[in-house]
Amino acid sequence: MKSDRVLSTADERRAKVVSSAVATFAQGGFHAVTIADVAKHAGISPAYVLKLFTSKTQLFTAALEECYRRIMAEFKRAGDSAEDASPTGVLDAMGEAYADLIGDRDLLMLQVHAQSAATVEPLIGEAVRGGIAALTDYLASRTRVEGWRIQQFLAVGQLCHLLTTIDAFDVDAPWAKLLTEGIRHADARPSGSPAD
Amino acid sequence: MKSDRVLSTADERRAKVVSSAVATFAQGGFHAVTIADVAKHAGISPAYVLKLFTSKTQLFTAALEECYRRIMAEFKRAGDSAEDASPTGVLDAMGEAYADLIGDRDLLMLQVHAQSAATVEPLIGEAVRGGIAALTDYLASRTRVEGWRIQQFLAVGQLCHLLTTIDAFDVDAPWAKLLTEGIRHADARPSGSPAD
DNA sequence: TGAATGAGTGGCTGTTCACTCACTATTTTG
DNA sequence: CAAAATAGTGAGTGAACAGCCACTCATTCA
Known about the structure:
The structure is a homodimer.
Chain A: H1 10-28, H2 35-42, H3 46-53, H4 56-80, H5 87-101, H6 106-117, H7 122-143, H8 147-165, H9 174-180
Helix pairs in contact in A: 1-2, 1-4, 1-6, 2-3, 4-5, 4-6, 4-7, 6-7
The structure holds a DNA duplex.
């Protein structure tokens, strides 16, 4: 056993830093969060973060890819353990899974920030496109539902992103009630409540 | 006639600067675009931009409010001139109007960037909330459709924002075809083509 | 054990940017 | 026409930040 090691391997560090990057970039987005912020969260020096990832853009991109990886894994898990194995049953299970997954907001906000940074940082744009492509392909081939249902699925997801960023789930006004009605949200409904 | 004036009034300048701010912030978002960028676009000095708007955040917020104002105006126009005056007919007309309106991308991208900046800059967050609230209230009271249709309407709008930022309308791949199928997009379909 | 490699850091640098201020030029008003 | 008010600018300031480099300390391996 090597538990008396005081240094990590570079790969361990990279994983830890990616995880910190997800949490930190989710707070303020690409431009508002500094490498020093991420480094502090990971407990290492800013210089070493840059040595591990060569540029801020690549660091953000790595975080984003991790984000899509987590979502994909959750879709797979939900799909495999769905009670109702019909196409729409599987899709519904994945919807539930997504709602649970983004309860902590990090994965959700990172996507919002990535979308904003996509044009100025082409690498990020490609990562978003790749992530959405992979998610869409997986949903289509795994569920076999009609195309419009997948459109719908993503559309509602995007609406959920918007409603979360403006805290609509906590607003007590007609417009907010109207928009959040029936939209599953981990914080808004105790798990186990009937959906729709 | 005062055409020999060489100085503008502050109000004229403000309007011009807001318009420049919409166009400029739409390119890179709140953090990536500088006051100097906006000033150059408006043809005045950065110092004077700051004198007219006191802070970068207020400038961005003014641009965002202008954005919602334009959308709202277009909704009103479309609603009033809808051929089919039934609730869903009016809503459809507004959907068409929105698709046309965001053909130039500025209004669309500004919203995407605003969503990203909303948490770090609370003033922007409030402006987004206010804009969505006003839009939702107007849609609900003017069209009188069921709530879920308005949800749907906004959800598809948000999906459209995503698809535009990743240029999905120009991608020739199954996932892109699937997601853009039937989604109206000013650049994608010549005006006058049958929708749905 | 000692050389080679890898982990990790402190401090610097050049640049960029929001915001300030003292100032000039123009327009209005009495 | 004088003076008050308004439009507009140039030059600067201080802070923040990405990326770089020379360096130290730990680990491995021959």
